[in-house]
Prior knowledge:
Strand order of the largest sheet of chain A: 2-3-4
Number of helices of chain A: 11
Structural class of chain A: mainly alpha
Distance between the termini of chain A: 56 Å
Strand order of the largest sheet of chain B: 1-2-3-4-7-9-10-13
Largest sheet of chain A: 3 strands, antiparallel
Oligomer: heterodimer
Shape of chain A: elongated
Amino acid sequence: xxxxxxxxxxxxxxxxxxxxxxxxxxxxxxxxxxxxxxxxxxxxxxxxxxxxxxxxxxxxxxxxxxxxxxxxxxxxxxxxxxxxxxxxxxxxxxxxxxxxxxxxxxxxxxxxxxxxxxxxxxxxxxxxxxxxxxxxxxxxxxxxxxxxxxxxxxxxxxxxxxxxxxxxxxxxxxxxxxxxxxxxxxxxxxxxxxxxxxxxxxxxxxxxxxxxxxxxxxxxxxxxxxxxxxxxxxxxxxxxxxxx
Amino acid sequence: xxxxxxxxxxxxxxxxxxxxxxxxxxxxxxxxxxxxxxxxxxxxxxxxxxxxxxxxxxxxxxxxxxxxxxxxxxxxxxxxxxxxxxxxxxxxxxxxxxxxxxxxxxxxxxxxxxxxxxxxxxxxxxxxxxxxxxxxxxxxxxxxxxxxxxxxxxxxxxxxxxxxxxxxxxxxxxxxxxxxxxxxxxxxxxxxxxxxxxxxxxxxxxxxxxxxxxxxxxxxxxxxxxxxxxxxxxxxxxxxxxxxxxxxxxxxxxxxxxxxxxxxxxxxxxxxxxxxxxx
Lengths: 244, 279
């Protein structure tokens, strides 16, 4: 094993002693100095997760969040130098983290926060202009087979929980959680308009419709799937949402 | 070249304030990795701020000291940023931060030997060729030394600069932190570096701990104001080097903008004393 392999392995495993061949000028135990590196790595990565998932941290408290994040950081260190992308697997990890099971909506709130950050950093693409839309509408026979280019910021989260209401309540200095019924399912459309990320509460069928469009299904297939979810699905209202 | 002025690390919480108030600051520095995102506000604001200020692009993830090949994808991402923002300087660290599949998000130390010297020089050659840019190499803050080292840190850095033609980013805080941690005299350490090749200075703050023997162990935390001892060392450095672009670094526990601006102004006043020209 190379020197750096030994070093890296000991960094992520506090049970290991520090590598051989490290020294301090005063002959002091190198383990304590090595611990500075261990601490820098773990704490900076926990900080990165706390920055990405602030509402999750509020929901469970800082001490619980940081303890949970520490388990994740050691199990799944980042693979990219771009730390804003770190934590894509964190919601799935929360699903399996049994101490958090008493907060069943925590993972979905994490999913929403992750989608918001992805929307924040997504590519700058001009949305459809009025002329493009007029062009499309002037050839209505082509509409059913149309596969739309959805803006890269757009994402859908379908949750069994009131994920957006929970998130929104925590945007206030004093969250009014008494008004939120957490077990009420919600569907959320996430998008960036200009520089602002927006979350829009949508019907489940609209969520199905948007999700199919993002997956590059045709408009007619998306409508069909949405109607399977809710026969009264309103195509025009859903399309209007996309023009915001 | 950056102007011989004081600059500030650019933080998103200060974007709007900077654009609205247009503070008299010599340049801004950004961490390259924070802007390796497809679009959105980070690029929007950096683009606007770049219209008004010189820019230093500072990498924290290239892992030049790694015992593995450089990450080509990361080099390409740096090239894209350099092309887009035309920074006056690009700098990176004498350290490693990636291993295997993982990014460890810290600037890790390496032993100073003939083998590591060759490797670091090869990597810097590769960076400079790929980017078409001469880079600056920053001296590290370290907490441990390697019994296998055969070169001093200053000899190692001097040789890298001689062989690769890169410049020096003199981090005065790192020099101070390392010298306290390894019981050396900071002034002598700095004088042993090729100061004639220094094109930029960093000033940051540290946190204080103690090692297992109770001796001071300083941590390069960038979470506190620049320490008095580091300011004193800085003025000595300016006497030797003459006015040189100087960055105030603060990455953690970020205070209100005015607090940072006061440190920038203090550095600027030392630069004027050292003979620098305000523009």
